[in-house]
Amino acid sequence: MSEQNWWQVAKEHWGKILGGLLGLIFAILVIIIGFWWSVFVYVCVGIGLLIGWRLEVSKNVGLYLNRIFAPRDDQ
Fold first, then answer.
1. Domain range enclosing 63
2. What is the largest CA-CA distance in the chain?
3. Angle at Cα 24 formed by Cα 23 and Cα 25, nearest 5°?
4. pLDDT tens digits, the chain, 75 residues: what are they?
5. Is 31 a domain residue?
């Protein structure tokens, strides 16, 4: 199989490849640090991705950060 064919296969099946890699990483983490720590790592990565996506979409980091860290008037 030529290199161009490999790229075509990767483009067509990128979700399966990504899922397999994430599963492999999770399995290695479970073996090394345990199940619950692995879940914690995945949750932290997911939150980080969500924040990064949100910042990328809004294009206005200052307003987003002000909204997150603004003092609340719960008096």
1. 3-69
2. 68
3. 90
4. 666 788 888 888 888 888 888 889 999 999 999 999 999 998 999 888 887 777 777 666 667 677 777 777 665
5. yes
How many domains, in total, are found in the chain?
1
Tell me, yes or no, whether 74 lies in a domain.
no
Instruction: Please report, to the nearest 10 degrees, the dihedral formed by the alpha carbons of residues 68, 69, 70, 75 taken in order.
Output: 100
Which tokens go with 39? 């879940």
HSE, CB side, 13 Å, CA atoms: give it for residue 3: 0
Query: Side-chain half-sphere of 4: how many Cα atoms within 13 Å?
Result: 0
Residue located via tokens 């910042």:
55
Distance CA 53, CA 10 (A): 24
Per the domain annotation, does 75 fall within a domain?
no
Token pair recorded at residue 24: 């492999």
